[in-house]
């Protein structure tokens, strides 16, 4: 039996295009399988893309009252929610409010304190709103809104809108 070799031509020769095509299809299939298993192992929340940071606000207690923040007195966009705490006379506390390029951040703090009036112990409240607006393309601005209930006052410096001094 005599074997004869057929010459290679364009149709039955080295088909590099077909090999590249097969390898491409196999790599697409493999990457999709690996991507699905990675997403199943580590699901991620839909987090809006933006530049995140924080702005600090300071509360200085120059009054004779001890300001108390209970555990249910903190709400909003804190960078890390602070624990329940007190600010004694002469003390201070720093709050960090989270910022995001696409929204206005607001944090609320509810203080309570006791004071003497006509020989009786009474309770007062102070509500503090910390607002950071970064929703525009320009520079951000900060606002502190205070709502005192009882004989407590405060002062702020125009050049430092992130600071407030509680006075009586």
Helix content: 10-25%
Number of helices: 1
Low-pLDDT segments, ≥5 res: none
Shape: rod-shaped
The biggest beta sheet, please?
4 strands, mixed
H/E topology pattern: HEEEEEEEEEE
Q: Widest sheet: strand order?
A: 5-1-10-9
**What fraction of residues sit in β-strands?**
over 45%
Second rung of CATH, namely the architecture of the domain at 52-167: Sandwich
| Number of strand elements | 10
Radius of gyration: 32 Å
CATH class of the domain at 52-167: Mainly Beta
Structure explained in plain terms:
The chain has a four-stranded mixed sheet, with no helix packed on it. Strands 3-6-7-8 form a four-stranded antiparallel sheet, with no helix packed on it. About 15% of the residues lie in helices and about 45% in strands. The termini are far apart. With about 170 residues, the chain is α+β, with helices and mostly antiparallel strands. It has a domain at about 50-165: Mutm (Fpg) Protein, Chain: A, domain 2 (Sandwich). Strand 7 and strand 8 (about 140-150) form a beta hairpin. The chain has one helix at about 15-40, and strands at about 50-60, 65-70, 75, 85, 90-100, 105-115, 120-135, 140-150, 155, 160-165.
List keywords for this structure.
Mutm (Fpg) Protein, Chain: A, domain 2, four-stranded mixed β-sheet, four-stranded antiparallel β-sheet, 10 strands, rod-shaped, 168 residues, single chain, alpha+beta
